Amino acid sequence: MPPRQYEIYLARIQFKDCDDIRPCILAEDPQGQEVKVFPLSSNLDLYDPKAHFLIEESSVGFASSGLKRTSFASDRVYIVRTDQLGRRRLGKLEGELLDDFVRWSWV
Fold it and tell me: What is the CATH number of the domain that holds 48?
């Protein structure tokens, strides 16, 4: 099945000072060979409650995200090539967590 909006995949992107493979929320369905993503980080020392979207382990719907620990979404959208996405989906945003993310991100 092709990647879909609000699913979480791994992708290699430059985020802050780090060039790691990290989980990302797809901001939209892929468009051709590219997709817009919100990168995620679990480094809460970088978390800014005025700018980032927090996904807490205690959140309703956290289990469906496929994440292993509390993380936050960057307020900046990145464009990655679809061939840079991992082969399998980690999870997806659902329910109240999805509703909150949509309100926060306007996507």
Answer: 2.30.30.110
Exposure string for 82-103, b = 16+ CB within 10 A, e = fewer: bebbeeebbbbbeeebbebbee
pLDDT tens per residue across span 53-105: 999 999 989 999 999 999 999 999 999 999 989 889 999 999 999 999 999 99
Hey, what are 88's tokens?
A: 């399998």
Distance CA 21, CA 33 (A): 19
Among candidates 55, 58, 49, which has minimal Cα distance to 90?
55
pTM above 0.90, yes or no: yes
Q: Which domain holds residue 76?
A: 7-105
